[in-house]
């Protein structure tokens, strides 16, 4: 009988060996999977750390958008009160409330002296911490104001308007920011353009006379040129429009549509003299202007009446009641005060 070879296994031994081999293979696969997982998590951890470092780094870089005056406007827009009973000038450290006899103000050529209409003078530092110093004039509803800037430019401000401007302009540009409506008689300087900035457009001139209306509550923003030449840049549309005397341009914020036509500029400048000239103007637009001019909330309850148009001239030096009675001469409507502060117009 031959001796059993060491290379032969019983069935039980074969099963045990098979289990050991399979177990060993699975252990190897498991270690490989764990290594891959650790590798992936390692990459993720590195990416996460890099992301955190980048976030911290970039968060420490201040966001810089726009010019100095635009950043100043962004920082100082809160708390503007158009329902005050006085024209106000916000200085760097305090504010001045102007009485009725001092609403015309002027700056000296070097910007360090502000002279009020009553003759009172106020001294200011032109530069603060090597930065330009800006003042803000706020003309509330029911008031008007006039301002002469340090370069000699004259600005007439209508009710519910705000103008931000430097005490003295920089060497390379003249920039102001307008909210509301104003007439500009810009001092000519062929070396340095004068720019009127607003939220949706920018007007650039060398020396000219124009009216611009950019009230936040209006869908339309309007520019009318009386003298000289201006270039209007519509920021969102990235379009420019060159205007000549007698041109009217309008930008509709909702539809993004730009329209132009020829007009009589005096119609749009008449408010400076206490008049409102109408040329087939709808009552809704008239009432909006009267509401600001007299600082009274006015509502039109009849839709057909809102769209009715009028032509002629209104004397804004009269009372609101007298002005409404003048309009009533060509139309039938009634008006009355509700809650002592709101005037309601209806058929």
Automatic annotation (TrEMBL):
Domain of life of the native organism: Bacteria
Location of the Protein FecR C-terminal domain: 276-344
Native organism: Zunongwangia atlantica 22II14-10F7
GO molecular function, one term: sigma factor antagonist activity
Keywords carried by this UniProt record: Membrane, Transmembrane, Transmembrane helix
Lineage, highest ranks first: Bacteria, Pseudomonadati, Bacteroidota, Flavobacteriia, Flavobacteriales
Pfam families in UniProt: FecR, FecR_C
Name of the protein described by the UniProt record: Anti-sigma factor
Cited PANTHER family: PERIPLASMIC SIGNAL SENSOR AND SIGMA FACTOR ACTIVATOR FECR-RELATED, PROTEIN FECR
FecR protein domain ranges (all copies): 138-230
Segments traversing the membrane: 40-58
């Amino acid at each position: 009988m031959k001796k059993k070879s060491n290379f032969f296994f019983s069935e039980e031994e074969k099963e045990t060996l098979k289990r050991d081999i399979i177990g060993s293979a699975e252990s190897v696969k498991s270690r490989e999977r764990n290594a891959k997982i650790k590798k992936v998590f390692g990459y993720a951890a590195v990416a996460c750390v890099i992301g955190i470092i980048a976030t911290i780094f970039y968060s420490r870089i201040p966001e810089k958008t726009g010019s100095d005056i635009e950043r100043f406007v962004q920082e100082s827009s809160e708390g503007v009160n158009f329902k005050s009973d006085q024209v106000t000038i916000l200085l760097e450290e305090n504010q001045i409330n102007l009485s009725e006899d001092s609403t015309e103000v002027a700056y000296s050529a070097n910007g360090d002296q502000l002279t009020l209409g009553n003759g009172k003078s106020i001294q200011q530092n032109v530069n603060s911490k090597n930065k330009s110093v800006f003042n803000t004039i706020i003309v509330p509803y029911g008031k008007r104001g006039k301002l002469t800037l340090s370069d000699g430019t004259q600005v007439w401000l209508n009710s519910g308007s705000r103008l931000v401007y430097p005490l003295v302009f920089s060497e390379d540009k003249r920039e102001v920011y307008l909210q509301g409506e104003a007439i500009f008689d810009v001092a000519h300087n062929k070396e340095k353009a004068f720019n009127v900035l607003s939220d949706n457009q920018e007007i650039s001139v060398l020396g000219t006379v124009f009216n611009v209306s950019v009230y936040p509550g209006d869908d339309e923003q309007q520019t009318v040129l009386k003298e000289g030449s201006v270039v209007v840049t519509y920021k969102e549309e990235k379009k420019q429009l060159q205007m000549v005397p007698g041109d009217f341009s309008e930008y509709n914020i909702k539809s993004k549509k730009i329209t132009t036509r020829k007009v009589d500029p005096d119609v749009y400048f008449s408010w400076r003299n206490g008049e409102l000239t109408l040329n087939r103007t709808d009552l809704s637009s008239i009432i909006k202007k009267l509401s600001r001019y007299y600082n009274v909330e006015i509502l039109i309850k009849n839709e057909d009446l809102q769209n009715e148009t009028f032509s002629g001239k209104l004397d804004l030096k009269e009372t609101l009641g007298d002005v409404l009675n003048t309009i009533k001469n060509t139309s039938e409507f009634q008006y009355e005060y509700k809650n002592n502060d709101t005037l309601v117009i209806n058929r």
